[in-house]
Amino acid sequence: MEVLRSVCPYDCPDTCGLLVHVEDGKAVKVQGDPEHHFTRGSLCPKMAHYERSVHSEKRIQTPLLRTGAKGSGAFVPISWEEAIEHIRRRWTEIIDQYGAEAILPYSYAGTMGLVQRNAGHPFFYSLGAARLERTICSPAKGYGWNAVMGQTMAPHTNEIHSSDLIILWGIHAMATNIHIMQDINIAKRNGAKVWLIDTYETSTAKIADRVIVIRPGTDGALALGMMHVIERENLVDHAFIQQYVQGYEELKTTVLPNYSPEVVSEITGISVAAIEDMARQYAKAQGPFIRLGSGLSRYENGAMTVRTITCLPGIVGAWSKPGGGLFGGTSTASALDTSLITREDFQEKTTRMINMNQLGQALNAQTDPVMSLYVYASNPAAVAPDQNRVLEGLVREDLFTVVHERFMTDTAKYADLILPATTSLEHSDLYRAYGHYGIQRAYSVIPPVGQAKPNWEVFCLLAEAMGIHKTFFKQSADDLINHVLEHPSPWLPDALLKPLFEGRPIELPLPKGYKMEFKTSSGKIEILNPRENSPLPEYKKPHGDRAAFWFINSPDARLLNSSFNERADLIKNNKMILQMNPEDASNLSLIDDQPVIAYNERGEVKFTLKITDKVPDGVVVAEGVWSIENTTGNRSANALTSQRFTDQGKGSTFYDVKVEVKAEA
Ligand SMILES: Nc1nc2c(c(=O)[nH]1)N[C@H]1C(S)=C(S)[C@@H](COP(=O)(O)OP(=O)(O)OC[C@H]3O[C@@H](n4cnc5c(=O)[nH]c(N)nc54)[C@H](O)[C@@H]3O)O[C@H]1N2
Ligand SMILES: Nc1nc2c(c(=O)[nH]1)N[C@H]1C(S)=C(S)[C@@H](COP(=O)(O)OP(=O)(O)OC[C@H]3O[C@@H](n4cnc5c(=O)[nH]c(N)nc54)[C@H](O)[C@@H]3O)O[C@H]1N2
Ligand code: SF4
Ligand SMILES: [Mo]
After folding, report:
1. Total tally of structural domains belonging to the chain
2. Is residue 148 domain-resident?
3. How far away, in angstroms, is 172 Cα from ligand 3 center?
4. What is the pLDDT of residues 361-376, one digit of tens each?
5. Ligand 1 centre and the CA of 588: distance in Å?
6. Residues 339 and 308 in one domain
């Protein structure tokens, strides 16, 4: 038996280091790497038995050609040669008749590895296909941070150790960022307090000293209310503001007067006393640290909400205090030159762009229709908003759909052709984290299961078949990784290249004093940003359709988006649960464990009701993006969500949704 290093490939801020025990070409056990600075030897429940996903009986092992109706899941195995030839023939016909822009790639974050995740870019650029605007996750959050902080580096998570007040703001860390608990526990042992601000009491509340339940989409108002009190009680850090902040005077005189705790209490549902107390404690903390999630950015006011919250540490001088600051995510993009992988230069012309949040619209458009969809590392039938429109599109007989997948997902069932994909243990890649400053290379540790192939190899085969003869497509994934590492940025010192080549986890070094280096146009924290349409932050309402309940579809600790639905051991006999407050349930004469339907103008979804006072009135909660197979009905949560965008960044608005609830007839 061998123990080999690898990296968790999933879209999770922790980007854990793995130790994989391999016997006879099979992974038999997976552990967290004790030498990894963030993992520190432990794994989340999903990955603790990754070998069960890798060697699952449900793995797709050969190419499959559809024999039944779209969506029925009836396929026959074919060879790789037949599959590639089939795609070549259909794409050639489509290109002749409609042009290459009738072909749309659809991919996201099934794997976060830089090579496999981006492998389609050079191919589809060379083909002249339509481009996909990949904004499903949290561009509004990035926008909000940038508006205030520009390119300022996020604080190191070790900063938490010296914090005395940690605010988990819109993040269900027990599910989505579990290793940060180790840092929080260090701070707690030193006496730090932890607050959780969420729309309901998630299981992350277990580690919180205080839970603040806020009305969905109103966090911007809370931040303004706190600033109002901090100003009123003269708790601002004048010296810090004077030197490092732009526009506090303007905010103070024109915006803050409108956000008294009374006004903010009306908007947020948080009591006046609580808002005042939060403001005082935040301002008086020695090192207040905000860990900001993305949930609150997935609303029509998302970017503005994040921008407003990001002003808070500036006015109390948190950045100058050990343990103080705000962490929304690291940007390690500049450490490695990904343009060596994506190859924008392969585009002969700029082709049309289709937004991934509006796949439903794009597949049903009357003009310039999409005639072929190539899906890899994503499961749009489950994860994209407005599921009914997406499925209406996928069922089109004249749409040629290819899905490169590990499992028979909701999307794969609608494919004309399925190609079997490797898991991360079966291919090489290069990973960088967004929840810390880690980078790690992974070599494949087992051979491909069945006839599965990595994304990179499939695009090389497709390039060959489509007559794209660039030598770029003649190299292996490892060649490409070597090439990227041979062109490191100044941020990646030579001394770290050796361990990187050896597949060890490394951490990018942070320059001394980085926390006080504000990389904005003015060199200051820009509460006033003259380049914005509204130069000062203000509260804007979320969209909130006209219906009784906000529908919060937050993550489930057992799943990662729709991944891990294959794991019966994790999900047991899942029923999609809808959590509702006792008073609301009683008003609707609904009882615990009753089958119910949540519905709005976009669709309806069956749930089993769970009555709980962890959810406030006017809100219902459904955790997890479930595959339809694992529900009691024929739709999952995204049948209720909308294709609308955030205020900036064309982000998704998964939480800015309302529903009615009724008993199942
Ligand atoms: N187990 C698990 N881990 C995951 C994922 C998963 O699905 N499951 N998804 C991965 C991905 S792709 C991402 S982007 C990250 C997601 O991580 P983030 O988006 O950073 O945050 P989440 O932890 O998903 O938590 C979002 C929280 O925001 C809350 N929320 C919703 N609306 C509001 C609001 O208006 N105000 C406040 N204060 N809170 C609100 C929700 O109830 C939820 O608890 O996690 C990654 N990790
Ligand atoms: N209602 C609701 N919807 C959401 C969210 C929500 O909170 N609520 N979260 C949203 C967010 S934040 C995000 S980021 C998106 C994520 O959406 P996606 O990135 O689509 O995430 P997954 O559902 O994990 O689907 C990834 C698929 O890729 C496959 N895969 C894994 N590795 C590989 C590989 O190497 N090659 C190929 N070809 N396939 C591979 C997996 O088997 C899996 O089916 O979902 C969004 N959807
Ligand atoms: S899903 Fe996240 S927490 Fe779990 S092993 Fe992967 S990176 Fe670590
Ligand atoms: Mo995401």
Report:
1. 3
2. no
3. 14
4. 999 999 999 999 999 9
5. 29
6. no
Q: Which of 454, 485, 507 is the last residue of a domain?
A: 507
Averaged confidence pLDDT in the chain: 97
pTM of the entire predicted model: 0.98
Pocket around ligand 3: residues whose beta carbon is below 6 Å from it?
8, 10, 12, 14-16, 43-44, 46-47, 178-179, 560
Residues 84 and 112 in one domain: yes
- Site residues for ligand 2, CB cut-off 6 Å: 11, 108-111, 116, 136-137, 376-379, 383, 404-407, 409, 421, 455, 553, 555, 560-563, 625, 637-638, 641, 654
Task: Choose one of 117, 172, 215, 222 to mutate for the ligand 1 pocket test, by most ligand atoms within 8 angstroms of C-beta.
Answer: 172
Give residue 642's domain range: 549-663
Question: In terms of DSSP H, where are the helices of 551-630?
Answer: 568-571, 582-587
Q: Which of 287, 309, 328 is the last residue of a domain?
A: 328
Same domain, 469 and 496: yes
Within its chain, how far is the Cα of 426 from the centroid? 24
Across 307-321, 481-495, 585-599, least confident range? 481-495
Q: Whose CA is nearest to atom 1 of ligand 1?
A: 557
pLDDT in tens, 195-219: 999 999 999 999 999 999 999 999 9
Q: What is the CATH number of the domain that holds 253?
A: 3.40.228.10
Residue 90 covered by a domain: yes
185 vs 35, 154, 173, 182, 459, CA distance in Å? 19, 21, 13, 5, 45
Q: Does the Cβ of 655 fall within 6 Å of ligand 1?
A: yes
* Protein residue with least CA distance to atom 37, ligand 2: 377
d(CA 552, CA 625): 12
- Asked if residue 541 is part of any domain, the answer here is no
166 shares its domain with 130: no
Q: Which tokens in the block code for residue 20?
A: 């994989």
Backbone φ and ψ for 604, nearest 5 degrees, come out as -140, 150
Ligand 1: nearest atom to the Cα of 217:
35
What is the pLDDT at residue 488? 84
Sign of CA dihedral 238, 242, 243, 249: positive
